Amino acid sequence: MAERTARSGRDEEAAASADRMGAEPRKATVFSLQQALNLALQHACEDDDRVLIFGEDVGELGGVFRVTDGLRTKFGTDRVFDTPLAESAIMGMAVGLALAGWRPVPELQFDGFSYPAIDQIVNQVARMHYRSRGTVAMPITLRLPSFGGIRAPEHHSESLETLFAHVPGLKVVSPSSPAEGYHLLRQSIADPDPVIFMEPKSRYWHRESFDPEAPAKTLPAGTSRIVRPGKHATLVAWGAMVARCVETAELAAEDGVELEVLDLRWLKPIDADGLAESVGRTRRAVIVHEAPLTAGLGAEVAALITERCFGTLRAPVQRVTGFDVPYPSGALEDEYLPSIDRILTGVQTVLEYRRG
Amino acid sequence: MDLRRLYRDMLVARRIDEEAIAMQRQGALPSYAPSKGQEAAQVGSAAALDLSRDFAFPTYRDLGAAVAMGVDLVGYLSTHLGTWHGGLYDPVASRFAPFNAVVGGPVTHAVGWAMGAKLDGTGGAAITYFGDGASSQGDVHEAMNFAGVYRLPVVFFCQNNGWAISVPTARQVAGGSVAKRAEGYGIEGVRVDGNDVRAVYEATRQALRSGQPVVIEAMTYRMGPHSTSDDPGRYRTLDEERAWAERDPLLKAAAELSRDELDEAEAHAKEVTRQVREGLLALGDRPGEELFDFVYREPTKALLEQKEAWRANG
């Protein structure tokens, strides 16, 4: 079920987690997503000495997005190390390390660089547990800077969630905010199965105040989150598109249209019940993603909604997505990505739809 | 290492190989990848492992290694029976990675495993099996480079058996030698007579205990077809096959053993083969539920729903 923003038991959680460094619960601090992810990696390394962090330029440099900044100094070159520039071997090495009882957290530098590693990810990482009849676990978290919006060169702005979500044995998640990033990364690393952790690179520098020490909360695989409640339609999004949907909802609210924004966050397994609960109330849904339209994850989400809410839907589910084109150069990026205007058009379509 | 033990294991592999082909012809086994001719390379290398700390990453044609390592052979052959892709043996307890049909990819796993062993300070080494065909894969290059950069205890054991299905080594391996490529990675590379079980054993033992990456290219010959679906008559000559038959690794080892020792080995192999055949025929199919059971540590809700739907239609 979708987790509500207003949570109960917050005080209990805070008290229960005052353990780290034996201090009083710290007050909320402002973190960027990049800093929150960095902290999550740091805490994961502190809590479990089997966690290993590796990839291209993650050591001395701290990663091209600085997500691993300072970790090599803190944990040493045995646990945080640079690899030669070969994505397939990075993932193959992760398989071997997992087999030897380690908990690998590799980084592939950019989404588009995961293609050379697809054989290892699909044929090995995703299948080893199945192939070995459950005797070999693959607790691998692949950190993958993902999606567009930063005027990057070719192959640096891909949205690969459908590709990975289609592979049995993988879990796929994408955080939409610093707090989400922190907790979802902790959860992913703790997960006993392989997780593709898609970091929305256009949100790395977005800042938010939260207290990473306080919540002992986890965000288990298959949960979603209602970011903004509403009653006229549900916007379903993940990663960087969540913030864009919230912006859209704020604009729509000025015209008296109350849009609910559901952050799907786990793209496999998907929170079908949470989707049904929200759309069951609002009776209209617009799915927003950066990936191309055809066979994108929006199609799966639309099918789940239709299967569960057909009787109550007031309009066909709409999809506002990237186009069926290769991800374009920076000059055309804004034409490609779902804009607030395009999302509003999708909303208008579901609101104005009349049968027959 | 006692040659009698090595010969015994080689003969077990040979007899099971013959039995598996017979079972395939009888329709009891859907397909099989014969290892005939490569027993010395497989048994000699695997016998050199210290099973308390080393680990092997096999290909789909490493029956001899499984025999020498004491892997449950019914479990190993169950993959050919079509029971379960990875086999039914316990890979962790057996120190023998799940049966893997990807060519080249698993070589990188040995590098990761060796790094893990090095971090744990176990003194263990990984051995990864691959062939002359797999040596063309980018993953094999990447793996050797990684092992060279990190100085990891990995033995890259190439069985150069002359043929990658229908393509001969001359049209597969530029430069003509996989072992020579090691120099480019700053690691040791040696070529051994892959049909001399003691030479293979000795080279592998030294490599495993060196604590360093080593490429061993064992020159051998795939005496049978690539698989039971293959027809070598379309791409190689009988003369070539006859010439290699004279260098059969079992003949070479047998020449140094007594009649009694050979008879004892034959009786042992016959008994093991009988047990494996009976075990395979008695195995039966896996319960249908297992279709869903090992995808994740805990099944997802969607998978449980699919399992329920499958059950309802059963």
What does this entry look like structurally?
The complex is a heterodimer of chains A (356) and B (314). With 356 residues, chain A is an alpha/beta fold. Chain A is built from 13 helices and 14 strands. In chain A, helix 2 (33-47) packs parallel to helix 8 (178-190), helix 9 packs across helix 13 (340-352) and helix 10 (272-282) packs across helix 11. The mean pLDDT of chain B is 97. Chain B folds into two domains: 3-283, Rossmann fold, CATH 3.40.50; 288-314, no CATH class. Chain B is globular, with a radius of gyration of 20 Å. In chain B, the strands form two sheets. Chain B has a five-stranded parallel β-sheet, with helices on both faces. In chain B, strands 4-5 form a two-stranded antiparallel sheet. The termini of chain B are far apart. By secondary structure, chain B is an alpha/beta fold. The longest helix of chain B is centred in the C-terminal third of the chain and has 25 residues, at 259-283. In chain B, helix 7 links the parallel strand 2 (126-131) and strand 3 (154-160). The interface between A and B is large, with 46 and 46 residues.
